[in-house]
Amino acid sequence: MLREAREGAGQRHRRSRRTGPWRARAGDRPAPARARPHHPARDTCQENGAPQLDVLVVGAGFSGLYQLHRLRELGLRARVLEACEDIGGTWYRNRYPGARCDVESTSYSYSFSPELDQEWEWSERYATQPEILRYLHHVADRFDLRKDVTLRTRVTRAEYDESDHVWQVTTDTGETVTTRFVVLATGCMSAVKEPDIPGADTFAGRALHTADWPHEGVDVTGRQVAVIGTGCSGVQAIPLLAERAAGLTVFQRTPVYALPALNRPVSAAETAEFKARYPEFRAAQRKSRGGTVFEPPTRSALEVDEAERTATYEAGWESGLLSGLLRTYTDLLADRAANETVSEFVRSKIRSIVTDPETAETLSPRTFPFGTKRPCLDTDYYATYNKPHVKLVDLTATPIVEITPKGVRTSDGEHPVDVIVFATGFDAMTGSQVAVDIVGKGGTTLKEKWATGPRNHLGLLSAGFPNLFTVIGPLSPSVLSNAVVSIEQHVEWITDCIGHLSRNGVTEIDATPRAEEEWCDHVADLASRTLYPDVASWYTGANVPGKPRVFLAYTGGLDRYRAECDAAARDGYRGFALSGTPAGPRLTVTGS
Fold it and tell me: Origin, by domain of life (predicted)?
């Protein structure tokens, strides 16, 4: 782990920084104090061999909170385990300067409650991390979810009991919980990728990771700061760090395509107008390809002349939307020649913003097509490099050799700094799952099974690991969609499935090997028709040494994916094997 500043670093995760009551208007007030820890192994007794819980949910972010709410509606015994000291998931942990969502606030929010839509008011077009966290606290309090959330409890092992069709789940507190079903709501971006740079532990200054930012904040005023990494976290943090630092050195291995967010406050009139059309908007979101609402393109980028194409791209650029350019033409992610037109458009924008031609060229991506790595939404990212105290180091020309006690040594010398910020990203999609010792049928671990890449059916269950559901995991639309819309789709399918099984005395559901094979082939086939698999990105696991290169997401669209999942359920859970056991009594379900 990174070595924190010595003053009180060891206590950082044991301190709450939030006080005061929640309120519906986002504002700038802090989130409420954390929930009192609960202990499911002590709270729920195991009687007559029956499991202590019907469902154990791992993770208390957007996924886990909604999953708990839906399970409660069925009257099931459900509890959430959360490793952090408070709810919020990725929005609890990622507190770096500039952290905010890259999907518009009104879209990046729950749709299940019309009342919630009417009472919550977003203050900005793109919500900041604190505002999103306040929203999740409001949801937790409004639906009284905290009483079934156990904080500061990390799942370390889960082993399936084949005779009783239950999971034995062990935590880092030493407790063991028996549950019929487990839902992994651990998120796509929760397994932090620590820097694998020699000497990282020797730095005498302060070393930080964007995904583990101190709750009390970090004052870099008057300091020399290094940022290693220019993914989305780095792109958001760099402009704000540059505002206070005496000097900022950015170490870039691969440049990124960044689009202007054009963020602004949301007026009262806009809020009222949006509330009036929320029902229509939410319905359109659910039917959409990616969880956001727009008119899909109908033409190729190559069938229009350059003047028309440039005008279209200008409109997309000025939209302030992450998908503003990708939604312009049908073939930007399928045809290299078409993609080059939009890639060069963005590079021309970089050249127009960055005054030094050499720096502009270093910041211009040349090795991968636009959109095949997740683009970034930025506020003054490129313009930051025009400041005299900001320096860009091209690691393809002068790679990092080591971290020293004084700073960062590259092949051309040492860069002394006071603070190093590692913006090195995540072991995305699969990292949080294989980090747990999950043991399925026959003693096989999930890590062993996924050694050559993740395998599951519909992105929901992996064969040989019954009753273990995943929310927005690998081989589902997840990171290629609005996460909250995908989360709701997953949670609702899982809840309906558990309700169906429980009403019918079914105690085990497992993906069949054949269905799993067909789904993996289908996902790979769809991806092969795009430019995605050819690019080394976290979409393919290429950012983690030794991780198998597999495209990790479903590219067919959320609308098509939803139809696939619904059809499987309608057909009696086609592709899944269902069975029962006398040791598992029928669960009582009160909801529909």
Answer: Bacteria
